[in-house]
Amino acid sequence: MSSTLALTEPFETLADYAASGGLDGLRRARAMTSEDLIALVGEAGVRGRGGAGFPAARKWASVLAETSDHDDSFVVVNAAEGEPGTFKDRALIRANPYAVVEGALIAAHAIGARRVVVATKAIYLEQLERIRAAVLELHADGWLAGLEVEVVEGPDHYLLGEETALLEVIEGEDPLPRQIPPYLYGLYTTGPQLGWSAGIDDSPGGPATPSSNPVVVNNAETLAHVALVCRHGADWYRAQGTSESPGPTIVTITGDVRRAAVAEVPLGRPLGELIDELAGGARPGRSIKAVLSGVANPVLSAAGLTAPVSYEGLGAAGSGLGSAGFIVYDDSRNMVDVAYQVSRFLHVESCGQCNSCKLGTLDVTTLLEGLVRGEPAKVDVVGHLRRALAGVTQSARCYLPTQEQRLVASLLDGFPEDLAERLAGIPGDLDVPLPKIIDIRDGVAELAAGPPYKHPDWTLRDTPVALTRR
Fold first, then answer.
1. Average pLDDT over residues 371-383
2. DSSP characters for 222-242?
């Protein structure tokens, strides 16, 4: 497979990138009007690679439409990447940070932004070094054209990747999701208090009209694709992938496979083929039982391995593409044990703004933990699980409780024999892996392992989480 984003042949310098055709897209984009540029990205069909698959052109157009003469608009590169089983953005930035920044500069031209913010986790030291070096090189060569490009380091929390929580961190706050989307309520606003740090500027000489400062938040890979589209054209991009899911994408494959993999592939290939080709298939003597697309979509059983890796293909199979991070489980695993790990992760990472989410994920997690431990049931476990899952999304600010509801329910409903085994009191594996990837090199995934362990209040401690709510 050829790599259009140079994952297998990293660019060490801006000169190397430019010699390969890099920056041609930015040069062409700056010769276009905002409307024509947004139309080009729309014709190519670029969709967000952060998980939701939202059309990039539609997002840009909404920000452009909402930006008034009193506003400063922003472009934010979301490189937080905290989805279990995903390593695509870090692999991309390690190999080719120039394409990411080039795409961000193109987006800034499209919406008339004067400031670009690249936001990632402080623990991603290699990626921070590569991004900062790329920005300095682009500045030295005159490519920033008066734009301010800032790199912001955030904490190691899953919700840092939620776009409104990311804006909070840029403003110096914790990653707590807002209720208003970025195209209506962006960065450093002077409008009414709607975020944690926003407020009306009533100082002498302050703005006479409140500003909302709309923001485009795009995933790092999405913006690299924009640079490719502006370089090669919409037809070139659509020649890859499918009609509803054009272009390539970067997949990550970990779990019960012969080797871990991160690679760029055209959308539309069958999932099972990619697992076999890139990761060597199941472990010796085992068969694939289930695949998670991160923790954002319902599980795929072995029957779903024929589904195309595309938004529509995996959607039709009852799951979703997410950020194309696939966690493989073989026939040695019980899916109730996996459900426990998913629920525990989401409970710990829930920010606590919505009681239905924080307490609901706690209820689900403790019930599942009891099943995995083989403890005698004190309540109607299945009925209690159903009720807890039904109410977990009430008044939710973000998508996390919906993930809990959809994925945990799919694991319990899709594998009734596994649930029956745990209901019979047969203990399971409390440590079944849910990969938090530190690095992938030469087919080996380095996974995070405590201590320190994160607790539901987001503190780090030397002992793992002890859940006491029953």
1. 91
2. HHHHHHHHHHH-HHHHHTSB-
